[in-house]
Amino acid sequence: MRMTFDYKENEHKISRHIAGVMNDLAKSMQPTSINPAVARTDPWTVVPYQSTHNTGGTIMGNNPGNSAVNKYLQTWDCHNLFIMGASVFPHNSAYNPTGPVGALAYWAADALVNRYLKNPGPLVSA
């Protein structure tokens, strides 16, 4: 599997804008010294982001129109495929997602063993 990610022009525009806002705000406080915010323009790399906790991509939800998996992390389109991990969250809630990821994995595993294996098929009707 190969996954490629890099910032697009919109992310660069957002970064330049917020850097300007932060600098204006900092200057308005009349500090004795300031380290101005600078928008990054280099390609994205995981190296400085070791604690980013990227999430999203296969969102969990209550219907296939707005999500990829149901509450048991079972895909809507392929009932024998379960997706575990932080990809099921629509966004990062600002904290390390390890606890909720583990809890959801146990939840899904329980449903898989105690419900799905006894009667394979969708665990939630669309």
Oligomer: single chain
How much of the sequence is in beta strands? under 5%
Low-confidence stretches: none
Main sheet record: none
Structural class, by secondary structure, is: mainly alpha
User: Looking at the structure, what is the overall shape?
Assistant: elongated
Query: N-to-C terminal Cα separation, in Å?
Result: 29 Å
Report the helical percentage. Answer: 25-40%
* Gyration radius, rounded: 21 Å
Order of helices and strands: HH
Mean pLDDT over all positions: 90
Total DSSP helices: 2
Number of strands: 0
Characterization of this structure:
This protein has 126 residues and is an all-alpha fold. Helix content is 31%, strand content 0%. It has two helices and no strands. It has helices at 9-28, 98-116. The longest helix is centred in the first third of the chain and has 20 residues, at 9-28. The radius of gyration is 21 Å and the shape is elongated. The model has no long low-confidence stretch (mean pLDDT 90).
Layout of strands and helices, then pairs:
Blueprint: H1 9-28, H2 98-116
Keywords for this structure?
2 helices, 126 residues
The gist of it:
This protein has helices at residues 9-28, 98-116. The protein is mostly helical and 126 residues long.
